[in-house]
Design brief:
mainly alpha; single chain; about 210 residues
Length: about 210
């Protein structure tokens, strides 16, 4: 628990630093690209342990490239063209080498779709309005944090033990409460920082 708390505090400091400085010299897309590369490396490392997902180095580099570029696609239109080229190279290598890389190809597109799509959406929200991103993350983080501590201190009744043995009903209610509290805090922060009322399209209480 101590490790989790320390990690959470460090991530919170890093996140808010990136969030408030993100408009300077593309700090936000740089941060997202770094996260994307690390996550891709871990996912490809997991795949490498299974013979079904074996692949060539070129195919892996194409996957790295496509996901790393996703945070920039909303900012620079030419990035989509580069991603398309990498996609064509990936398919071409798959066809030319004529090896059993079909499993990896499906796995690769799954990573690009979910991880790359998440990076693109995160960057897009930030570029449109940073507080869009903050609201969505507040709901996610608030729910997770409150659910964890509610379950840790008060959890007695199992929620769905055959699916997730550690989840409790108390933790679930704590997660709901955490989402509500987090949104209220973030909306208050928005008003405090911008000195403006919350736009109707991001006001979750109107």
């Amino acid at each position: 628990m101590k490790t989790r708390i320390i990690s959470g505090l460090l991530m919170t400091v890093i996140f808010f630093t990136v969030f408030f400085l993100g408009s300077y010299i593309y700090i936000m897309p740089i941060a997202l690209t770094s996260i994307a590369i690390i996550a891709t490396h871990e996912l490809l490392g997991i795949a490498a342990q299974n013979v079904i997902f074996q692949s060539s180095r070129i195919m892996k580099l194409c996957v790295y490239g496509m996901i790393a570029l996703m945070p920039w696609a909303f900012i620079f239109s030419i990035v989509w063209f580069i991603i398309l080229i990498l996609n064509l190279i990936l398919i071409l290598v798959f066809i030319v080498q004529r090896k059993s890389y079909f499993g990896f190809l499906g796995y690769a597109y799954l990573i690009v779709l979910f991880l790359g799509g998440s990076m693109y959406a995160t960057s897009s929200f930030y570029q449109i309005n940073p507080y869009y991103l903050l609201f969505f993350l507040a709901i996610s983080f608030g729910s997770d944090i409150f659910a964890y501590f509610s379950g840790y201190f008060f959890g007695k009744n199992k929620l769905i033990p055959w699916v997730s043995p550690n989840k409790t009903i108390e933790g679930a209610f704590g997660g709901i409460l955490g989402s509500i509290v987090s949104v209220i805090l973030i909306q208050s922060l928005y008003i405090l920082v911008t000195k403006q009322p919350i736009p109707e399209n991001i006001n979750l209480f109107t």
